[in-house]
Design brief:
Elements lengths: L2 H10 L7 H11 L6 H13 L13 H16 L1
Helix pairs in contact: 1-2, 1-4, 2-3, 3-4
Length: 79
């Protein structure tokens, strides 16, 4: 999974209450250059804002996908 794929995962699951602010950060990040400082900062904002995101029985996203998204965003954010 790439950072942009992680952002798209957030956007695709925007109806989940834990993603309120994260969705806007993800949408903005999808429009940024992946090699920019701003993109790395956006990844860190996302990591912070998806900390409460959990998979539920009715959600289409799995626990493993959420963990992978968090990890890739954290790695990219730390540069």
């Amino acid at each position: 999974m790439t950072a942009k794929q992680a952002m798209q995962l957030v956007v695709n699951n925007q109806d989940m209450p834990a993603l309120n602010y994260a969705v806007n950060y993800a949408i903005a990040g999808l429009e940024m250059d992946e090699n920019s400082h701003e993109f790395r900062v956006q990844c860190l904002y996302l990591v912070s804002n998806i900390s409460g995101w959990r998979a539920t029985k009715s959600s289409s996203v799995t626990k493993e996908e959420i963990k992978e998204a968090r990890n890739i965003l954290k790695v990219v954010g730390q540069g």
